[in-house]
Amino acid sequence: MKELNRLFENNKKWVLEKTRENPDFYTSLSNSQDPQYLWIGCSDSRVPANQIVGLEAGELFVHRNIGNLFVHSDINCLSVLDYAVNVLKVKHVILCGHYECGAVKAAMEKPGKGIVDHWLCHIRDLFLQHKDELFSIENLKKRQHRLVELNVVQQVYNICHTPIVQNAWLMQRPLCVHGWIYDLHTGFLKDLNLCFSSASQVENLYHV
Ligand code: CO
After folding, report:
1. Domain ranges in the chain?
2. Domain 35-198 classified CATH 3.30.200.210?
3. Distance (Å, whole) CA 65 – CA 49
4. What percent of the chain has pLDDT over 70?
5. What predicted TM-score, i.e. pTM, was given to this entire model?
6. Which of 46, 72, 173, 207 is labelled catalytic?
7. Is the pLDDT of residue 3 over 80?
8. Percent of the chain, pLDDT > 90?
């Protein structure tokens, strides 16, 4: 319990700090939220979304799962995207992967981790899809890093292909989908320079 008490102590400190800076901090946040960004990232404890980009409570709408995947049939991430785009009207969707991702590493090995193996199949499929390029990279670390990048690219495409994003673009709403990587070794973000902001950048077949 001592360990959990520490969390409550931290919470008290946070409340004091915030109300000292702005006595209305919690009152105004309790009324509404107006985030401009949706962050979709990995559940990894080393990749804390708000801290990485220096945003306060109320400024970033967040969805995290193992391997930062956006799966077409996942009602959880679809609901998050729909709510963020159509209700909160965020202007940017950021799909952020990270180097040293345990999900990517595990997907390059044989299954044997239990239920999570089903989820990791999405990355394993991607690994096999790009196996020629990936096996041409001899250094294992570099090969893993490349799969981290390819995974971000694929998930960005998956987001762009949803009718949610396609409809927003059809209605001429400003909405950019970005692919980033967080480098655990340095703390810096890397922009993969994937920035999709219109249907013309995506295959015709996905247009609504
Ligand atoms: Co990860």
Report:
1. 1-31, 35-198
2. no
3. 12
4. 100
5. 0.95
6. 46
7. yes
8. 93
